[in-house]
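User: Show me a protein chain along with its predicted structure.
Assistant: Here is one chain, sequence first, then structure tokens.
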Amino acid sequence: MRTRIKICCIRSREEAWLAIRWGADAIGLVGAMPSGPGTIDDDTIAAIASEVPPPVASFLLTSESTAQGIATHVRKTGPSVVQVVRHIEPDESARLVELLPTTRRVQVIHVEDECALGLIAQYSPHAHAFLLDSGRPSLPVPQYGGTGHTHDWRISAEFVRRSPLPVFLAGGLAPDNVSEAIRTVRPYGVDLCSGVRTSGRLDPGRLASFVEAVRQADAAGR
């Protein structure tokens, strides 16, 4: 199986097309967050999302915590996928299915410890995929991604084994560790932000190295 590649924290049309040219299957557009890099305003998100050609997916990362708030954010920006970065209440997750029946829904799970495994049953009936990240939602100023840190891949690997849904892996990935991450976790896809940037800018050289590392891992049988 080919590992899908999602490049997050896209800030401009130029960055979006650079990621797509190098083989990104999806790009991430980060809405307002309490902390973390790469946030852009909703008008910019809408402008970029409107230009993303199929089959490339445009992910809106939203920190809204209610189904209505998430749905409003999606309708304002027009992505093909919504990435819910908070651990929202189960009834809100179920309600989101009704409000956004044609939008693909990805639920982020922040892997702080093995409790993450208990969230599979809670969210799998209402999502199309999971994304495992290294956020710290319990901090006084919550972190919902973009930390640049890995988490315990042993937990992530067990999550993938138990999940009925496709699973993306994020958190501290870079050209020099993504092959090991793919071999260890065996995710459906990988997602990163800072690992392909230099001085905050999307770096074509690092992007090329990352894509090549993913392809080599796939060719070696993951």
